Amino acid sequence: MIKQEICQVIDQREIATNIYELTVKGELVHEMTEPGQFVHVKVNNSLSPLLRRPISIANIDQSRQTFTMIYRAEGKGTSLLAKLKQGDLLDVLGPLGHGFPVDEVESCETALLVGGGIGVPPLYELSQRLTANGVNVIHVLGFQTKNAVFYEEEFKQLGATYITTADGSYAYSGLVTDVIKNENITFDVLYTCGPTPMLRALEKENRHKKVFLSLEERMGCGIGACFACVCHTGDDPTGVSYKKVCSDGPVFRAGEVVI
Amino acid sequence: MIKQEICQVIDQREIATNIYELTVKGELVHEMTEPGQFVHVKVNNSLSPLLRRPISIANIDQSRQTFTMIYRAEGKGTSLLAKLKQGDLLDVLGPLGHGFPVDEVESCETALLVGGGIGVPPLYELSQRLTANGVNVIHVLGFQTKNAVFYEEEFKQLGATYITTADGSYAYSGLVTDVIKNENITFDVLYTCGPTPMLRALEKENRHKKVFLSLEERMGCGIGACFACVCHTGDDPTGVSYKKVCSDGPVFRAGEVVI
Amino acid sequence: MNALNISLPGLSLKNPIMPASGCFGFGREYSHLYDLSQLGAIMIKATTKEARFGNPTPRVAETSAGMLNAIGLQNPGLTKVVEEELPWLSQFDVPIIANVAGSMEEDYIAVAKEISQAPNVHALELNISCPNVKTGGIAFGTVPEIAQSLTKKVKEVSAVPVYVKLSPNVTNIVEMAKAVENGGADGLTMINTLVGMRIDIRTGKPVIANQTGGLSGPAIKPVAIRMIHEVSQQVSIPIIGMGGVETAEDVIEYFYAGASAVAVGTMNFVDPFICPKIIAELPELIHSLGFDHISECTGRSWKTVEKLTHHRA
Amino acid sequence: MNALNISLPGLSLKNPIMPASGCFGFGREYSHLYDLSQLGAIMIKATTKEARFGNPTPRVAETSAGMLNAIGLQNPGLTKVVEEELPWLSQFDVPIIANVAGSMEEDYIAVAKEISQAPNVHALELNISCPNVKTGGIAFGTVPEIAQSLTKKVKEVSAVPVYVKLSPNVTNIVEMAKAVENGGADGLTMINTLVGMRIDIRTGKPVIANQTGGLSGPAIKPVAIRMIHEVSQQVSIPIIGMGGVETAEDVIEYFYAGASAVAVGTMNFVDPFICPKIIAELPELIHSLGFDHISECTGRSWKTVEKLTHHRA
Ligand SMILES: Cc1cc2nc3c(=O)[nH]c(=O)nc-3n(C[C@H](O)[C@H](O)[C@H](O)COP(=O)(O)OP(=O)(O)OC[C@H]3O[C@@H](n4cnc5c(N)ncnc54)[C@H](O)[C@@H]3O)c2cc1C
Ligand SMILES: Cc1cc2nc3c(=O)[nH]c(=O)nc-3n(C[C@H](O)[C@H](O)[C@H](O)COP(=O)(O)OP(=O)(O)OC[C@H]3O[C@@H](n4cnc5c(N)ncnc54)[C@H](O)[C@@H]3O)c2cc1C
Ligand SMILES: Cc1cc2nc3c(=O)[nH]c(=O)nc-3n(C[C@H](O)[C@H](O)[C@H](O)COP(=O)(O)O)c2cc1C
Ligand SMILES: Cc1cc2nc3c(=O)[nH]c(=O)nc-3n(C[C@H](O)[C@H](O)[C@H](O)COP(=O)(O)O)c2cc1C
Ligand code: FES
Ligand code: FES
C-alpha cells in the first residue's frame, strides 16, 4: 500500500562526486516488497521546489525499518536533498510502482544486471533478492568517469561485477554493451536501469531474451492520476493505448512499451 | 553605509509568547550608528517567501560586533526566522533608514519613550543611548496581554517603566495614552513606535511638544528605490510631495508626514 | 451545525472542496489513499468523444511555485468513461462534475448529451479553455460569441446544469463570463491554466515536448483571485474557484473574492491528502473568523468595500 | 574577447543586463551599493508629464514566488526628471532607457519629445501597459490599433529609438507586437506585470489599497518566456525580455526564447546586487554552454526546432 510519511534521516553520505546515499526510517518500509519500486520525496516544506522528486529504492532493511536511496545532486531539488542531516525529517510518498519481477529467474540460473549512472541504485536491492533466491548474478555497471563510480564493493560481494567508464578513467572503457559483448557474458534474464539510449541498445541486442527495463519519465503525481508519465504500448505504438511509468512501471518487460 | 552581509546567528530565544530575540554577528554592525534604524532580512535562501522582512534594530553591541532584533513570529517569513538556531546564517541588508535623533534632548532633560507591542524593540537601543547621554528616560510600554510582555527588566534598569496591557492581565490596564494621562507623566521630548492609532493619538495629544514617531509600511526594496512605502508630507497632505518610510524614515518628526 | 454544506445548481455538496479536473484522474488512485466520499465533489479528467493519447512526453515541467503541463486531454474516451469510470465512482457518496472537451462543437455536444445522463454526474464542466490542444479549442475560450453559442448548444442537450470553465488567457475575462452567462451557463469554473513555457538551458529546447504548457499552482493564485473578484461582481451565476489552492486560508480567500466553492489541482501532486486536510481544517478556521457558515464568506472582499463606500458617502 | 556586448537600435551595450523600470528608481539608491557603470543600461522609473503621487498604500503584497505592486506611476514629473535625475545619471557610463507613461496620447507625446533629447537617454520605453492606472492607459496596451497609432505618434517626435513595452494581459500577444511593429517601434520590451490580487483573510479586504496590482517575479517567468518565444518568431525587431529573472541561467533562457537583452525587476529587491552578480557570471556560463558570444543564444529554442524539423524532412 502507498503511504505518505514523515520519515527520519538516519544517515546521509556523499559516496562519489555529487552522489549521495541517504538512509531514512519509517513505517512505510513495511510496504516495500519489490525491488525496483521508487518513492516520491518532498525535499523541503516550501513551494520552492514545488514538486516531489522520484527516487528509486536502493536498499531495504526491514529489521531496522529503514531504506536507502542513492541519487545525484544536480538540480534544485536534489541539491536541497543533499543538505539533509541525521535527525532531519523527510516527507516520503511510497512505495510506488511495480518493480523487477524476481521470480522470472530460477535458482541456479544467471541474471545479468546492467546499470548506467543513477540507474544503478535499484539494481542493488534487486541483486540481493536474487542472490538470496540462489540466482547467479552478474553486474555490468557503467559510469561517466572514475569519480562517479559507487557501490563497486557492495555489488562485488553479490556477484561478478564489471565496471566501465565512459571516459575510460577507471576499469573498462566504453559502453556497457561493449563490455557484455567483449566479455562474452551470457545470462538467462536481463534486468536493467539507466539512460534511455542504453535501454534501447540492450533491448535491441537481446530481442529473444527475457529483458526487464526500468524507465524514467517526468512525473507530476507519481501515483497514476495525472497522465504526465505515459508511454505508448508496444502493440499499439502510435495509437491510444498507454502505460503509466509511475504506476504500471517503472519496470516493464522489453517490448511492452515504446521507449 | 548600507551593506549586505551573510551574518551568523549567535543566539535566538523566545522571550514572550511568539516573541523572539535574535542576535546575529556581522561587520555591518559597524555601520549601525543611530537607534531606530532597521534591517531588511531574507529569512531563507528560497523564493518562498520571496521578499525581505523589515525588522528594527533593538540593541547594538559594537564590541562583540552583534546586534539584536526582537520580533513577533506571525506570518510566513517571521515564523521561518524563528526557526534559526545558533550558527545558522542570515542574509541581512542594513542598516536602513534614519533613526531617532538623540541630540534633540539635552542631558538632564526628560525623554518619554512610548512603545506598543512590536514597536517596543527599537526603543531599547534608543533608551540606552539617551541614558548614556545623561537624559532621564521614562518608558510607557503597551502590550496586548500578559504573555506578550517582554524586556520589562531591561527597560527598568534604564529608567522608570510603566507597563500596560490591553486586556488588563498584567500591570496597568488600557492604552498607553491613559497611563501617561493618569500618571501625569511630563517630558521634554517624546519618542514613540507602535501601531498607527497609538501614534495618531500621541501626535494629537502632544501638538506643541517635540515628538518623533517611527512608522511602519509595507516595503519592497527597503532602500528607497521602489516607491512602495511613501506617505504624504504634512505640508502638502493631498499633493504630490512625499517621504519614503524606508529611506527618509522610519522615524519622522510629528507633523512631517501624514499618518 | 454543518458549516460547510453548499447548494449550487445541480450540486448539493457536503462541503465546497473538490479536486480539479485533470489532477485526480477518475479518482481510482486517490481512492487507495482515502475515502472519496469525504469530498464535496469530484471533477473528473476531461472526456472527449474518442479516446485520446495526448501529447508526447515530457508533459510536465516545474516552475517557481508552479508547474507546466501539456497532457493534451489524454483520456479513455466517452464510452469507457460512461461504462467503466462513472459506474466505478458510483460506489462513493460524492457528486461528479464531468469535464467535457472537444475539438469541434459537435464533439462537445455529443459528449455532453451522453455523459450528463450518468446517474452520478450532477453537473458538467465545459472545458472551453484547454491551452494544450492545437485544433479548434482556443477560439471557444477566447471569443465571446463562440463561447456563448457553444454554451447554448450544450445547455440544450445536457440533462444536468452546465458550468463553463474560463481561460485566463484573455484580455477581458468579464466579457467572456457574461457571454457564457447569456448562453445559459448555470455556473462558472475559473481559472484554467495560463499558457507558459520553459526552455532547458543545456539542450536549448522547450522542456515540454509540446513546447508550451498550462501554468498552474500557487504562482497563478493572484491572477485567479483577481479574475473571480472582477467576474463575481458582474454575473449572477455562482463560481467554483481554482488556481494554486494549498491551504484552508486560500479557500477563504477564494470565497472572499466571490467563489462559492473551490477546487484543488496541482497541490494534490504535492500532498495527496490535501483535500481531506483542508476539509478538516475549514470549520475551525471559519469560526475563528467569526462566521457560522462558509457561505457567508462569498464576495466579502467587494461586499465590504461597497459597505465602506456607502458608509462614507 | 568580450562575450556580452550587444548592439540594439540606439543602444550600444557593454552587456545585455539592465534593471527594469520601476524597480531601480532613478539609480540613486543602488549607486550607493555599486558602480552603475557596470550595467548594460538602466531603465528608469516611468516618467509622466506632471509629477504624480500614485496610489494609496499598501502598494505591495507578497505572493508565492512573486509580488503585487500598485505604485500607480509615482514620479517627480518630466521637468524634474530632465533637470535633475538625468543630469545626475550622466556621471555614469551607462545608457538610459526612459520609460514614458501617460493617461492620454498628448501626455505620451509631450514626455517622449522632451525626454528623448536628454544626452544620456539612448532609447525610450513606451509604457502602454501599466495595469495600475485607472484612466485611459489600459486601451493603449490591449487594443492593437490604439497601440499602433500611439507608437507612430511617439516615433514622430522622439529623437531616439522607441521600444514599446507590452502587457501580458491580452488574448493575442503576437497581434499586439505586430501592431506596434507596424507603428514603427524599433524594439519591444516584454513583459509588464500580470494583473493580480490578494485578499487579507482577517480583514476581508484586498491587501493592496488599489485592490488589484501587477504580479511580477519568478512566478510569471513561464508566461514571459512563452510570449517572447511566440513574438520573436513573428516580428523582426529585437526584444528586451523581463519577468522574474533571478539567475544567469534565466538570462540564457530568455535569449533562447528570442530576447536580445534582459531586464531584472523584482529580484533587485531581494538581492540588491543581482545585476552585477549576473553580469559577472554570464561569461563563464556562456562559454560552458559552448558559445563565444551571448548573441548566439538569441532564438535558439525555435531555431533548434526549425533545424530539427528540416533535418527530419
Ligand atoms: C522512477 C524513477 C526513479 C528514479 N530514481 C533515481 C535514483 O535512484 N537516483 C537518482 O539520482 N535519480 C533517480 N531518478 C531521477 C530523478 O528523479 C531526477 O534526477 C530528479 O527528479 C531531478 O531533480 P532535481 O531537483 O535534481 O532537478 P530539477 O532540474 O530541479 O528538476 C525539475 C523537475 O524535473 C524533474 N526531473 C528532472 N530530471 C528528471 C529525470 N531524469 N527523471 C524524472 N524527472 C526528472 C524533477 O523531478 C522536477 O520535477 C529517478 C527518476 C524516476 C522517474
Ligand atoms: C521599519 C520597520 C520596522 C519593523 N520592526 C519590527 C520589529 O522590530 N519587530 C517586529 O516584530 N516587527 C517589525 N516590523 C514589522 C515586520 O516587518 C512585519 O511583522 C513582518 O514583515 C511580517 O512578516 P511575516 O512574514 O510575519 O508576515 P507575512 O504576512 O508573511 O508578510 C507578507 C508581506 O507583508 C509584509 N508585512 C506584513 N506585516 C507588515 C508590517 N506590519 N509592516 C510592514 N510589512 C509587513 C511582509 O514584510 C511581507 O512582505 C517592522 C516593520 C517596519 C516597516
Ligand atoms: C496535470 C494537469 C492536468 C489538467 N487537466 C485538465 C483537464 O483535463 N481539464 C480541465 O478543465 N482542466 C485541467 N487542468 C487544469 C486544472 O483543472 C486547474 O484549472 C488548474 O490547474 C488550476 O488549478 P491549480 O493551480 O490548483 O492546479 C489540468 C491541470 C493540471 C496541472
Ligand atoms: C514595484 C514595481 C514598480 C514598477 N514600475 C514600473 C514602471 O514604472 N514602468 C514600467 O514600465 N514597468 C514597471 N514595473 C514592471 C517591471 O518593469 C517589469 O516589467 C515587471 O516587474 C516584470 O519583471 P520582474 O518580474 O523582473 O519584476 C514595475 C514593477 C514593480 C515590481
Ligand atoms: S506521474 Fe502522474 S500519472 Fe504518472
Ligand atoms: S520600500 Fe522601496 S521605496 Fe521604500
TrEMBL record, chains A, B:
<dbReference type="InterPro" id="IPR050353">
    <property type="entry name" value="PyrK_electron_transfer"/>
</dbReference>
<comment type="pathway">
    <text>Pyrimidine metabolism; UMP biosynthesis via de novo pathway; orotate from (S)-dihydroorotate (NAD(+) route): step 1/1.</text>
</comment>
<keyword id="KW-0411">Iron-sulfur</keyword>
<feature type="binding site">
    <location>
        <begin position="53"/>
        <end position="56"/>
    </location>
    <ligand>
        <name>FAD</name>
    </ligand>
</feature>
<feature type="binding site">
    <location>
        <position position="221"/>
    </location>
    <ligand>
        <name>[2Fe-2S] cluster</name>
    </ligand>
</feature>
<dbReference type="Pfam" id="PF10418">
    <property type="entry name" value="DHODB_Fe-S_bind"/>
</dbReference>
<keyword id="KW-0408">Iron</keyword>
<dbReference type="InterPro" id="IPR039261">
    <property type="entry name" value="FNR_nucleotide-bd"/>
</dbReference>
<feature type="binding site">
    <location>
        <position position="246"/>
    </location>
    <ligand>
        <name>[2Fe-2S] cluster</name>
    </ligand>
</feature>
<feature type="domain" description="FAD-binding FR-type">
    <location>
        <begin position="2"/>
        <end position="102"/>
    </location>
</feature>
<dbReference type="InterPro" id="IPR017927">
    <property type="entry name" value="FAD-bd_FR_type"/>
</dbReference>
<dbReference type="InterPro" id="IPR037117">
    <property type="entry name" value="Dihydroorotate_DH_ele_sf"/>
</dbReference>
<feature type="binding site">
    <location>
        <begin position="77"/>
        <end position="78"/>
    </location>
    <ligand>
        <name>FAD</name>
    </ligand>
</feature>
<comment type="subunit">
    <text>Heterotetramer of 2 PyrK and 2 PyrD type B subunits.</text>
</comment>
<keyword id="KW-0813">Transport</keyword>
<dbReference type="InterPro" id="IPR023455">
    <property type="entry name" value="Dihydroorotate_DHASE_ETsu"/>
</dbReference>
<dbReference type="InterPro" id="IPR012165">
    <property type="entry name" value="Cyt_c3_hydrogenase_gsu"/>
</dbReference>
<protein>
    <recommendedName>
        <fullName>Dihydroorotate dehydrogenase B (NAD(+)), electron transfer subunit</fullName>
    </recommendedName>
</protein>
<dbReference type="InterPro" id="IPR019480">
    <property type="entry name" value="Dihydroorotate_DH_Fe-S-bd"/>
</dbReference>
<keyword id="KW-0665">Pyrimidine biosynthesis</keyword>
<comment type="function">
    <text>Responsible for channeling the electrons from the oxidation of dihydroorotate from the FMN redox center in the PyrD type B subunit to the ultimate electron acceptor NAD(+).</text>
</comment>
<keyword id="KW-0274">FAD</keyword>
TrEMBL record, chains C, D:
<feature type="binding site">
    <location>
        <position position="127"/>
    </location>
    <ligand>
        <name>FMN</name>
    </ligand>
</feature>
<dbReference type="GO" id="GO:0004589">
    <property type="term" value="F:dihydroorotate dehydrogenase (NAD+) activity"/>
</dbReference>
<comment type="pathway">
    <text>Pyrimidine metabolism; UMP biosynthesis via de novo pathway; orotate from (S)-dihydroorotate (NAD(+) route): step 1/1.</text>
</comment>
<feature type="binding site">
    <location>
        <position position="191"/>
    </location>
    <ligand>
        <name>FMN</name>
    </ligand>
</feature>
<comment type="function">
    <text>Catalyzes the conversion of dihydroorotate to orotate with NAD(+) as electron acceptor.</text>
</comment>
<feature type="binding site">
    <location>
        <position position="21"/>
    </location>
    <ligand>
        <name>FMN</name>
    </ligand>
</feature>
<feature type="binding site">
    <location>
        <begin position="243"/>
        <end position="244"/>
    </location>
    <ligand>
        <name>FMN</name>
    </ligand>
</feature>
<keyword id="KW-0288">FMN</keyword>
<dbReference type="Pfam" id="PF01180">
    <property type="entry name" value="DHO_dh"/>
</dbReference>
<keyword id="KW-0665">Pyrimidine biosynthesis</keyword>
<feature type="binding site">
    <location>
        <position position="127"/>
    </location>
    <ligand>
        <name>substrate</name>
    </ligand>
</feature>
<dbReference type="InterPro" id="IPR001295">
    <property type="entry name" value="Dihydroorotate_DH_CS"/>
</dbReference>
<comment type="subunit">
    <text>Heterotetramer of 2 PyrK and 2 PyrD type B subunits.</text>
</comment>
<comment type="similarity">
    <text>Belongs to the dihydroorotate dehydrogenase family. Type 1 subfamily.</text>
</comment>
<feature type="binding site">
    <location>
        <position position="99"/>
    </location>
    <ligand>
        <name>FMN</name>
    </ligand>
</feature>
<dbReference type="InterPro" id="IPR033888">
    <property type="entry name" value="DHOD_1B"/>
</dbReference>
<feature type="binding site">
    <location>
        <position position="45"/>
    </location>
    <ligand>
        <name>substrate</name>
    </ligand>
</feature>
<protein>
    <recommendedName>
        <fullName>Dihydroorotate dehydrogenase</fullName>
        <ecNumber>1.3.-.-</ecNumber>
    </recommendedName>
</protein>
<feature type="binding site">
    <location>
        <begin position="69"/>
        <end position="73"/>
    </location>
    <ligand>
        <name>substrate</name>
    </ligand>
</feature>
<feature type="binding site">
    <location>
        <begin position="265"/>
        <end position="266"/>
    </location>
    <ligand>
        <name>FMN</name>
    </ligand>
</feature>
<dbReference type="InterPro" id="IPR049622">
    <property type="entry name" value="Dihydroorotate_DH_I"/>
</dbReference>
<feature type="binding site">
    <location>
        <position position="217"/>
    </location>
    <ligand>
        <name>FMN</name>
    </ligand>
</feature>
